[in-house]
Amino acid sequence: MPLTPDRKKALRSLGHNLKPVVTVAGKGLSEGVMEELNRALEDHELIKVKLMIADRELRHQVIGQLCEQSGAELVQEIGKIALIYRQAEKPDPRLSNLLR
């Protein structure tokens, strides 16, 4: 289900102080990157991803692939940082960025 504008606004405010937990570099979306991304989404639900890709169009395509493959939704994209969200099946209150 797509995020509503009000929900995106709330998630953006929560994501403001987060640090990137996954970095996508020159090799793109490798299997290891996707495993780490899925683990981080399951633990934290709302994460920042840093993309070390210079070309803006390629960066935008990688973010689209990343969201599609992980089942996450893009909340915000600013420069080389993407804020993405995927609701966890069993959120852990100690790890989730939404339940703190």
UniProtKB/TrEMBL annotation:
Residues 1-97 form the CRM domain. It comes from the Bacteria. InterPro entries: RNA-binding_CRM (IPR001890), RNA-binding_domain (IPR051925), RNA-binding_YhbY (IPR017924), YhbY-like_sf (IPR035920). GO terms for molecular function: RNA binding. Keywords: RNA-binding. Pfam families: CRS1_YhbY (PF01985). This is RNA-binding protein.
